[in-house]
Design brief:
single chain, alpha+beta, Glutaredoxin, eight-stranded mixed beta sheet, two-stranded antiparallel sheet, 6 helices, 31% helix, globular
């Protein structure tokens, strides 16, 4: 009985990090507060699709990818696939990821894309986001959106110039050309999202 009791917390912890959305799944709409104080929803912001990136201020991997995320938005926003960045880190665990620090980050880096706070962490959990950065490219289908790609931005977390596989760019380019996304899933590399226990 004691062994079973010990397994329950471990199971619940595993369940919290089990991916919820898989490629091809329909995505529920969400509405979160942007750094400008306004609410942004997926349905109200995205047109053909979106590059949803679970990100933060403090993770070294996020910092390494910051300019690449800005470049993705610049390249694809006018093609109907803008970046939507979401910070789900609990600021009590990671104070540098508070809303106030998010506002400063967006201002200092001149973000032109939404940087949303997931205060309840429910959106990150619904996506099954585990890392920063963790990307979900979604594509418009009917009245909603479906997941077309999940994973990393590219294959070099340290140096953009050394990346020879640009997974997100390849995925979005394929969607724009009405082609199959391949690969449709890669391993997200980065810091673990600071979920509250």
């Amino acid at each position: 009985m004691k062994k079973f009791a010990l397994l329950i917390p471990a199971f619940l912890l595993l369940a919290a990090f089990t991916p919820k959305y898989e490629v091809g799944d329909a995505v529920s709409d969400f509405s979160l507060k942007n750094v400008d104080g306004k609410k942004i929803s997926l349905s109200g912001y995205a047109d053909k699709g979106a590059i949803i990136i679970f990100d933060c201020n403090t993770c070294p991997f996020s910092k390494a990818y910051n300019d690449r995320i800005i470049a993705l938005h610049t390249k694809y926003k006018d093609k109907g696939y803008p970046v939507i960045a979401i910070n789900a880190n609990d600021p009590k665990i990671s104070p540098g990821d508070s809303f106030e620090h998010m506002v400063s980050q967006a201002k200092n880096k001149s973000y032109t894309f939404p940087y949303l706070i997931d205060e309840t962490q429910e959106v990150a959990k619904s996506f099954g986001a585990t890392n920063t950065p963790h990307v979900f490219v979604v594509n418009k289908k009917g009245d909603g959106f479906v997941v077309a790609y999940i994973g990393a931005i590219d294959n070099n977390s340290r140096d953009a110039q050394s990346a020879d596989k640009k997974y997100v760019e390849d995925a979005v380019d394929a969607l724009i050309a009405n082609q199959t996304v391949s690969p449709s899933k890669t391993k997200a590399i980065g810091c673990g999202i600071k979920y509250r226990s």
